Amino acid sequence: MQHQAITILGIESSCDDTGAAVLRDGKILANIVANQLVHKQYGGVVPELASRAHQANIIPVVDEALKAAGVRKSEISAVAYTQGPGLLGSLLVGGSFAKSFASALGIPLIEVNHMQAHILAHFIQSPVQENKVPEFPFLCLTVSGGHTQLVYVEDYFKMTVIGETLDDAAGEAFDKSAKILGLPYPGGPLIDKFAQLGNPLAFKFPVPKIADLDFSFSGFKTAVLYFVKDNMAMDVDFIEKNKNDICASIQYTLVKILMEKLKAASDLKGVTQIAIAGGVSANSGLRKALLNNTFGWKVFIPKFEYCTDNAAMIAMTGYLKYQKQDFATSSSIPSPRMKI
Ligand code: KG4
Ligand code: ZN
Q: Smallest Cα–Cα separation from 198: which of 136, 245, 146?
């Protein structure tokens, strides 16, 4: 019997990136993301502007993904969309589009949890060679602009959050520190860039003492704010003169906070397969710390385009759900506070 290919169209619209991807049998054929530049001038994502931009982007992005994949609408097996967590208005745009598209084609609709999808991005197969994927159980540190979670992953859909942030997310700690230094949003990649030229031990910032496997970054942010204020009071050119060293020291401390909790989780669970996911996993300091670990860890880092928000991970999760015939009903609606 001939193998019937499973082709999934994935739609991502949880925050400020509009994404569409086409996946066939676990391999990505196209992965298109439209970034919304409109938020830059406001120093953060403006929800109403994000929804409007999704509305304008969604059809061209899906069109481009199908064209790049060389896939006709009639070949799509199912449409997977980000149901949550995320901004309600943004989720509504992607969700309504996905629902109508699936309904018009008479194919199943699949609901995807964005946080699960960040983790399941590790299972996307390379089109050219067999890639190494984590074996169950493994630990995943999901670090993005909205979330910081330590997840114990026993199976594709058996995931337990064993630690999370009590306040700001790791990405926010990068972005807010960058804002204090006068850098534009999102500042994480800029801190990373300047950090590579600086001395990570030039300045000392506090590492919060938080019980168990939880995280807190709000005290860190306040420490950066007062550090900058105090030094600027003595020298108005302080930031300009020390930008690389400040960024390196901020990054060093944030990576230290993340690595200490990962180590504690690894010891607690007796798990040495460690994965990272989410936008902050693009950070060079975090990647270096993980790859140079002395704990005997086997480390998994997704390809750069699967770290930040993307629809490839949504399509991959949809593919795994399709195999279980786990389909949504026509009353499917977004769930902004969806949990893993
Ligand atoms: O996963 P993501 O694209 O979107 C959310 O779901 O939030 O993550 C975005 C976050 C932003 O806070 C951004 O500053 C951060 O990831 N980020 C980085 C780097 N690249 C992206 N933070 C530090 N270093 C980077 N290289
Ligand atoms: Zn995300």
A: 245
Q: Measured between alpha carbons, how far is 103 from 321 in angstroms, rounded to an integer?
A: 18
pLDDT digits (tens, 9 = 90+) for 190-228: 999 999 999 999 999 999 999 999 999 999 999 999 999
Residue 233, SS3 per DSSP: helix
Using CA atoms, how far residue 180 sits from 21, 177, 186, in Å, is 36, 5, 12
Nearest ligand to the CA of 304 is 1
pLDDT at 16 (0 to 100): 87
In whole angstroms, what is the distance from residue 12 CA to residue 42 CA?
23
249 contacts 203 by C-beta, under 8 angstroms: yes
**Nearest-10 crossing angle of helices 188-195, 170-180:** 70
Position 338, amino acid: M
Beta bridge partners of 171: none
For residue 90, how far is its CA from the centre of ligand 1 (angstroms)? 18
Torsion of CA 53, 54, 57, 63, to 10 degrees: 180
Number of H helices, E strands in the chain: 9, 10
Question: Ligand 1, residues 15, 252, 290, 308: which to mutate, most atoms within 8 A of Cβ?
Answer: 308
Q: Which secondary structure element, helix H or strand E, spans residue 214, and what is its range?
A: none
Pairing of strands 148-155, 158-164: antiparallel
In ligand 1, which atom is closest to the CA atom of 307? 1
Question: Using an 8 Å Cβ cutoff, are 137 and 153 in contact?
Answer: yes
Structure tokens given for 121: 């991005």
- Residue 280 Cα to ligand 1 midpoint, Å, equals 4
From residue 124, how far is each of 45, 131, 134, 261 by CA, in Å? Answer: 29, 9, 11, 27
**pTM of the full structure:** 0.94
Q: How far apart are CA 297 and CA 275, in angstroms?
A: 10
Instruction: Label residue 1 by pLDDT band (50, 70, 90).
Output: low
Burial classification of residue 129, based on how many CB atoms lie within 10 Å of its CB (0-12 exposed, 13-18 middle, 19 or more buried): exposed
Helix (H) or strand (E) holding 197: none
Is residue 333 a contact partner of residue 95, using CB atoms and an 8 Å limit? yes
